[in-house]
Structures are given as C-alpha cells and as structure tokens.
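Data card: per-record layout.
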Amino acid sequence: MKAAVLHEAGKPLSIEEVAVSAPGPREVLIRTAAVGVCRSDLHFVDGAFPHPMPTVPGHEAAGVVEAVGEGVAHIRPGDHVITFFTVFCGACEMCVSGRPSLCIDPSTRRPKDAAPRLSLADGTPLAPFLNLSAFAEQMLVHENACVAISKDMPLDRAALLGCAVITGAGAIFNDSRVRPGESVAVIGAGGIGLAAINAAKIAGAGMILAIDPVPEKRALAMKMGATHALDAGAETLAKDVLKLTGGGVHYAIEAVGRPNTAELAWTILRRGGTATILGMIAPGGNVSLPGPTFLTGKKIQGSLLGSTRFPIDMPRLVQMYLDGLLDLDTLVAERIALEQVNDAFDKLRQGDSVRSVIVFP
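The structure for this 361-residue chain is written out next.
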C-alpha cells in the first residue's frame, strides 16, 4: 500500500510503498477513507516530541473494515469505523474504572518477537505511530482502537471525531460537565478549541469566550457558537475576561499547549472554577501558578482525548452530527490527497489553518 513515511524529524515525509501484515488475533485491517492532519502529528514530525523512526504518522482517521483476525468480537468486515490512538485493553484498572483513554496495557500491541504490522519495501520495520499510523491507504489496528458507527455518517467528517472533536467536546461533556448557563473560555481556536466551543454551545453554556490571536479563527469560533471572541495578544486580556464575566469563567479550556496559555487558563477562572489543559506542552515546559491563588478553590486538571469512553461517546457524537447539532463541516478547511501532506504541515506551522483532511480515492 501507499503511505507517508517519516524517516527523520524535521524532514519532509516521503510517499512510499509499504507492506502491511495480515490481521493477527484481535486485529482489524481497515481501508482508510480519510485522515485529518493534526497539530499533534506536527509535534512529532518537527521533533518537539521524540518518536522512534522510521514511522508512518497520522492518528485522526476513519475507514471501512476489510478483514478481521481471530477473536475479534465487535467489529466485522464492511463496518464503517472511527479510529482512536489510545487503544484500550478493557480489563486494567483504568478501563474498568471508566477511564479507557488512560489505558497503557501492553496486551494491545504485538509481541516484540512478532512480525511488525508495517514495514518498508526492504523489510525494515516501521515503528507504530500512536497505535494507528494513519497516513496510509490501510491501517492495521487492535480491535479496541476503533469503533463501528452509522454508515450514514460521511467518513471525511467522521475522521475528525478521532482526535480533535473527542478531545474538545470531551473536555466540555466529560472533564468539565458544563451545565446550562455556566461560562466557558476556550484558549486556542484550532480544531480542538473549535470543537470545545461547539460542545459548550450544545451543553447550553451561557457565555462562551474564544481566545485566539488570528482574526480568521476568531470568526470561525463565532460561527461555531462562541458568544465573544478576544484577541490573545491583547495586553489587558486577563482583566478584560474578568470584567466581562463578572469575576472569571466557570471553566477554562486550554487547547494550545504552551505554559503561558495554561497559566492564562488558571488566571481567568472565577473562584471555584476549573481549568482543563488539553494542549501538548513540550518536554521541558513547566507551568507556574501563584501559591495564594489555591485558596480560591480553583482546580487545574489534565486530560487525554477528553476522557472519552470511546464505544459510548463516539457513536453519540456521530448522532449529534446527523441530528444537526455538532458542526463538523466548518472544521474542514480543505480536502487533499496523501501527496499533499507536507503542504498541510506547512499550513499548520503558519498557524492560520483549521483542518486539512486527506481523502483517499
């Protein structure tokens, strides 16, 4: 099959022929229909986060099941599926306590002495990328790295649920549990931030503040449900938020991944408010909070993929889209071919694009 291979961080991906193994026990072979080009991919491509090489990046995808291995219980050939990179075992403490996004049980990966799922034409094994390696015509994944969805769902929109949307929406529905009338500030109006804004609207938030330095993204945020859009570069930003909200927001969602934006999320909370940090703060980055402010009852928490319970939450999000509640159409900036993946990364580096979605013929 054809795939985009990363041989060295900081270098362009190359389109190559890659061999894919047959499905083993509890594995599913998926024909990729669409995959989003996510900023999280960029962190690894540019080397901000280390990863074994060579590898095939990509982790926000949807497709159609072609074959299943022995023991697969819930997925069948012909199913339309969304993938997610935090594959879960279903039996560890995290899984049975309702936190499958935090599962790291090694049983979901192939044994070290087994053949690799993917390899280069010369036989060189390809390191699995976030359990998916989705920049490819096919994905070979554990059955608990995907969930079947309605075939009425367009797969180029469904792909976005695999990372950006479940992260942003999950931060609202699961991590924050926003109630009608409460206030929410979202820092960063990229794919994740826009999904959080849209989810806050669905949850009935009374005031939804979008904070971003790019005017075009602030305009998109208003379209997605924000009631106010503020320039992240304003010198009086924190004071403006406190004044506008009468003392701060109930919930702040950080969707950028920088120490200063995480600190801003804390600063703009009202007493007793909660900040959820979604962005990937690079190794070496530290967040500093003034000690006395803990006496205000504020809380700060991390989140991975919006604490999503995949088999339950993802079909519900699909239905929200089909019912006209969840806006995925606005998130798609362009549809491109696999060969344009490096151009899509350049647009992410510029910071003014929402989502480029690779669509396979």
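Known properties of this structure: The chain has ten helices and 16 strands. The two ends are 13 Å apart (CA to CA).

See the next section for split statistics.
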